[in-house]
Design brief:
Two copies of one chain form a homodimer. By secondary structure, chain A is of the alpha/beta class. Chain A contains eleven helices and 16 strands. Chain A folds into two domains: about 270 residues, Alpha-Beta Complex (Spore Coat Polysaccharide Biosynthesis Protein SpsA, Chain A); about 80 residues, no CATH class. In chain A, helix 3 crosses helix 6, helix 3 packs across helix 7 and helix 7 runs antiparallel to helix 8. The interface between A and B is medium-sized, with 35 and 35 residues.
Chain lengths: ~350, ~350
């Protein structure tokens, strides 16, 4: 498929994995999964290279993150990196990147993928992607939905609609993160899938959908398009000027949920969003006592803990008689919390921000 | 009292407070109590100076600890430091130091005090010491016993015998660390006191008691005494040669428990042995949530924790949703355990020793 392009979404505020993640080192730049020896974004790139040529892959990230991000993706050329002047949520970012691709190839089929997820079955992943690309080529924006393996309350769901050719169906609707009772219902019903955040479309279909659902965004992108015809310096100036004025809305809320017809490819390939340190423990390699920890940690009567040590000083972490903790250590901070509080790390980040200690953010 | 001398006991293996304490930095060199801004041994010295002139205070410590220890005690001259060539428990140490004092002043009254304890009422302490010194001057080895304020299982006890002039009594017997049921009995009975580890005697009485109960020790000390008459170089040579041959026994087991007549001064002055990090929490200044922590720690939903940070790097410690933990941090290690496991730190030290990581001990 010579017209396949990919947009890797690589923004991120770096709060959920503090202190490992920071404003200038968000989650996707960390080695949080055992999928490869690379950071999450490096794993993501190596996972999509078999279905998308490196010359047709783009990485959308913040201006302040471009340099660090490039170091993780040596397979890509400098022109692959699209620097958003400011973060305006996903619809402006995807709409803008899609226009850049469309100018290059009006017949492009685009594959949008987050940079910070874990996949354990790459063949399963690549098969689902190929099915989704075929579906998108028919002119219908297409998502991948993951068969739930547990009543997860941390993900959005997609309700499956009318079946098409297996494993493709129409999307009935998107649903927000449920409570536990709802999540159990969803899993039992067999009609709900996890929203993977990946989607596929012909560039022109997304441009049309944005024009229909977020006309102000389309108008801004038209202006950047017009500037681009006058050369790169003018394009850059226009992008920096116009981007901050674009409506800040997510692609899900602004476009996908308003689109009358969407397809979903149902799949299972050991997908995980790695939403918190608790997920890192769930997907990590445990010792006989259920601990995920560096080999030089000293563990006595310690069970089911995560130790994530990023310190360059090789400080030894010793746990005595503790269970179900997350211990996260860097050169300048050490966070200790129960695994079940791992989704609340933001409370610590907020407390640090309130104290004005910007060096720690 | 011109004949009052003091021996501060400052050995210690540095295991109970790992990673803050190390082989070359035992507990008494740490600032573990709020009694003063000094280390425990510094607090001890400043506590006894009102009852014992600095020129009559000796510090018995290991050869490998003399230099570090001197830095904590600038009030004392170089000759105050008695370096044990090897650690042979307390009876040889006290017997030897007592002989040194006795050679200087045959009428000396000696006051032995551990270097690693906490006292909250210094007037109460000094009053008890003066009573004990008076009792010792009568020719009876005298201890201080602390009225129990809780059923403590971590201390040895003294059973009070026949009353003398209040607050002095005879000692009925010493008892080992009890279990909780026994400790409750002891506290309820009113007849049992905590063994403070402080005791008082005329130098000649201790020399006699050692000759009676541990004759091999007396014999070794006689040899060192004889060598001392021939000059300091010969004394040093004899000490280094003879000390390792002395019987390794504690002053309690070897001498005090065998002595038919002992006195005890009953006292209360906010005494604590600071046996583990749990004691540091009990005696520390807590915030409204019961945490004892540095002011730059970030605490969210955290209750009744101890954070002891000795790191020179000012790494921030963040606790989210944890209770009753001890977190102890140094430049090269971080230990996390429940407060109730604080007396088991040795298990971590043993695990590290078993791994051959001597740099951490």
């Amino acid at each position: 498929m010579n017209h396949v392009y990919s947009i890797i979404l690589a923004g991120g505020s770096g709060t959920r994995f503090w202190p490992a993640s920071r404003r200038t080192q968000p989650k996707q730049l960390l080695r949080l999964s055992s999928e490869t020896d690379r950071s999450l974004i490096g794993s993501t790139l190596s996972r999509i290279l078999p279905v998308c040529d490196a010359t047709r892959i783009y990485v959308a990230t913040g201006e302040h993150l471009v340099n660090q991000t490039r170091e993780h993706l040596p397979e890509l050329s400098e022109s692959a990196f699209l620097a958003e002047p400011v973060a305006r949520n996903t619809a402006p970012c995807i709409g803008w990147a899609t226009r850049i691709i469309e100018r290059r190839d009006p017949d492009a089929v685009v594959f949008v993928i987050p940079s910070d997820q874990h996949v354990s079955s790459r063949p399963g992943f690549q098969k689902a992607v190929r099915v989704a690309l075929n579906s998108a080529e028919s002119g219908i924006i297409t998502t991948i939905g993951i068969t739930p393996t547990r009543p997860e309350t941390g993900y959005g769901y997609i309700e499956v609609g009318a079946p098409l050719e297996n494993p493709v169906s129409r999307v009935a609707r998107f649903v927000e993160k449920p409570d536990l009772a709802k999540a159990k219902e969803y899993q039992a019903s067999g009609r709900f899938l996890w929203n993977s955040g990946m989607f596929f479309y012909r560039a022109k279909d997304m441009t049309d959908a944005i024009r229909k659902h977020v006309p102000l965004l389309a108008q801004g992108l038209d202006e950047i398009d017009a500037a681009a015809k006058l050369g790169p310096a003018i394009e850059l100036e226009a992008t920096r000027r116009i981007f901050p004025t674009l409506p800040s809305v997510s692609i899900d809320v602004g476009v996908l949920e308003k689109q009358s017809t969407l397809n979903v490819v149902q799949a299972e390939f050991g997908w995980n969003d790695l939403g918190s340190f608790a997920s890192i423990w769930e997907h990590g390699a445990t010792d006989a006592q259920g601990n995920v920890a560096p080999t030089d940690a000293v563990l006595v009567d310690a069970r089911d803990n995560l130790v994530y040590a990023q310190s360059s000083q090789k400080r030894v972490i010793a746990l005595l008689g503790v269970s179900d903790l997350c211990v996260v250590e860097t050169d300048d901070a050490c966070l200790i919390m129960p695994r079940e509080r791992a989704q609340d790390v933001r409370a610590i980040v907020d407390a640090i921000a309130a104290q004005g200690r910007k060096d720690l953010l």
